[in-house]
Amino acid sequence: SLPLSKQDGHFILYSGIYKRKAKEIDTAISLEMNGMLAGKIFTRDTYQKIGAFDHEKTQEILTNPSVINKKYWGRFSGVLYHKLDQKVTLMRDPLGLNTLFYMQLKNGIIFASDISLIYDCLKDKPTINLGYFADYLVGSQFAPTHTPFDQIQELAGGIGLNYTLGGQIEHELLWNINAIPNKPITNTVEFEDQLLDTLKSCTQAWVSDSKNVCVELSGGTDSSAIMILLSEVLQKDQKLIAINYIDSKEPSSNEIEYAKEVADICNASIHFPDWHGASPVDPLEAGWRPNRPSTFSLFKKMNEKLHDVLDSENCTTILNGQGGDHVF
Question: How far apart are CA 262 and CA 227, in angstroms?
Fold first, then answer.
């Protein structure tokens, strides 16, 4: 059967910052009876958070799904249901911040934001994809569409997948960076002011409904910039907390001095979880099945230390500066 709404139970979209104690659960964003997105979506012009799309905007997105990436920004994944064409369109945000996996069956298609949800629905379990792990070890795939299981695929960021009742699958480019006009910078000062204003507006919109905000602060350029931005845009009742990972047995690798300096500038408290004693052979939490291999996910004790800080400071959002070079 085709998905019509969240209540129908034909599909599940779930996302949280951490699976162990997920505090920030993505919002279910309705497109009337024509589908649903899960995540956080904002308008590009006013930075207003979208809770649901009205009839006019829903029809516009159904007619041209690429509109979602032209008029809105954020972290999202979901499905559109085209009643007239009898097809569904799976979609994912351009940067791939939200996950979306799918598997074509003989009589349909199954999809979810977590591989484990698909795996549990299958009577005949898929085999392990050894090629995926080989690519992971050598680092040859930065944005792979294959997964640890054969037959289960990951939808690439900015791509739409159209599936018809006849079983045909067609991929559609919903975000084309090459089509964005390339305007030369004629006034550097004016450009920097516009960039800074955009960064502040985006950051403020993203954390507007957060209780307290935590930043993984290394003391480097990217994470320090995020800390300073947050210190300027957070509301008075929102606390800013920094986390700087240290290794008490390898002091040369620590950046405590730089992290403290930035935290002091931002008037933020700072915590120093210690890597010493954490090991990649620590037993994983029972029932935890990540979508892909991750070095940090293997360190159970370090994960617990991080979550203890989040709980003690009542943090509902955690940010870091990874990939900040794309912006700064």
Answer: 8
pLDDT tens-digit readout, 287-326 = 778 888 776 566 777 888 888 999 999 998 999 877 554 4
Are 93 and 158 spatial neighbours (Cβ–Cβ below 8 Å)?
Answer: yes
- The phi, psi pair for 222, rounded to 5°, reads -65, -55
Contacts of 98 (CB under 8 A, 6+ apart): 15, 26, 38, 39, 75, 76, 77, 92, 113
- Rg of the chain (C-alpha set): 21
pLDDT range class, residue 26, cuts 50, 70, 90: low
Does residue 169 contact residue 162 with C-beta atoms inside 8 Å? yes
> What's the pTM?
0.83
Q: Which amino acid is at 82?
A: H
What's the mean pLDDT in 116-120? 92
Q: How far apart are the first and last CA of the chain?
A: 46
| Amino acid letter, residue 322 | Q
C-alpha closest to that of 92 among 60, 116, 66: 66
* CA distances from residue 105 to 112, 125, 163 in whole angstroms, order as listed: 14, 12, 12
73: its two tokens: 């920004």
User: Who's near 314: CB < 8 A, 6+ residues apart?
Assistant: 211, 212, 239
**One-letter amino acid identity for 157?**
G
- Nearest CA to 16 among 75, 95, 57? 75
Chain position carrying tokens 């299958």: 122
